Amino acid sequence: MSSGPHFSAEAIRRGAIACLPLLPSTFIFGAVLGVLATQRGLGLGELLFMSLTVFAGSAQFVSVDLWRETIPALTIIVATLIINLRYVLIGASLRPVFRGRPLWVKICAMHMVADENWAMTMAQKETPIPGFLLGGGMFLGVVWGSGNTIGYLLAGGIPDPNVYALDFAFTAIFAALTIGMWKGREDLLPWVAAAIGAIIGHYLLPGTWSILIGAGAGVVVSALTWKGDNDTSAQPEIVTSSATGVSGDDYVPNPDDPRFSSRAGE
Amino acid sequence: MPDFTSFTPEAVLTILGMAVVTYGMRLGGLLMADRLPQTGRWAHVLERLPGAVLISVWVPSALSAGLIGIVGATATLLAMIMTRNLFAAMIAGMGLVAAGRYFFGA
């Protein structure tokens, strides 16, 4: 992908199809959350409102679990903040997808970003347009909300996801996508550091802190192992559109983009 | 019919608070990265970031699933390296974990 629209119907459709393998697990876990909501006194409308506006599975599970007649609002919001801190890093890593795109595209497309459609987007061989990311998010949102509704209406009787290893689907997809993200030897040390950091964090710290410890270790090691931009063809990738008088809404591919150089695909 | 239309102000405000912090971090992360240089050390770090975050997401979940989780994750990785097929890799990992739980209660 070198240019093109921000959100094409085709990219949205491909993004949705890419997330298809996650349908059973997302639906069942959505239903489990629906059952939990009936036990904690959330209305179905409130739950769906949360699924649409927050759209973050693990934070929603913790929040609904904390929900009581008198809502511990501050506790819930702080817990959400901590569990979702990884989205700062996830958002940062999406920079190539939004390179040269106007602010409104970023504002529109960054809401429906879950771990799953983000991982699927980052693992594509060619950097997809924002529509791919959004298509996956919209698909997962519909499945997630449908699961919530079915679980809420049944108020129980949902099969245990663990029996069919549906809980493991997320782990397996993420592990497999990691292989697709391998760009070369320079990934090795940061990845090993991330794994070690995550393992240490898993055994020493509660909740999702292990994600931040692992990612932090990966960041530090990748910063330390940087050997300099030894390729002279790597020019700044800033898209200059003012010179030609093109409006900011038009993406102009930069001929100096390293993706077009001989190093592309390394 | 369940209380589809009942929204208490406390619930709506709590949910909006959750939504604002979550969306703020999603968009904020991207906008912060936009301000980082496009080349050099920071660009190199940003390129390593997706893999580092992803590994940090699934490694702890594999550990939480116990021995069978570690076996299942290893099988997923090997299947992906051999087949380069996401669905095959996913089925390999999930199949092993489901079988392991069924036969050994692991």
UniProtKB/TrEMBL annotation, chain A:
GO terms for cellular component: plasma membrane. It is found in: Cell membrane. The chain crosses the membrane at residues 15-37, 44-64, 70-89, 132-155, 161-181, 188-205. One of its GO terms (biological process) is L-valine transmembrane transport. Keywords: Cell membrane, Membrane, Transmembrane, Transmembrane helix, Transport. Residues 231-245 have a biased composition (Polar residues). Residues 256-266 have a biased composition (Basic and acidic residues). Residues 231-266 are annotated as: Disordered. It is a multi-pass membrane protein. Belongs to the AzlC family. PANTHER family: INNER MEMBRANE PROTEIN YGAZ (PTHR34979). This is Branched-chain amino acid permease. It comes from Thalassospira profundimaris.
Automatic annotation (TrEMBL), chain B:
Pfam families: AzlD. This is Branched-chain amino acid ABC transporter. InterPro entries: Brnchd-chn_aa_trnsp_AzlD. The chain crosses the membrane at residues 12-33, 53-79, 86-104. Keywords: Membrane, Transmembrane, Transmembrane helix.
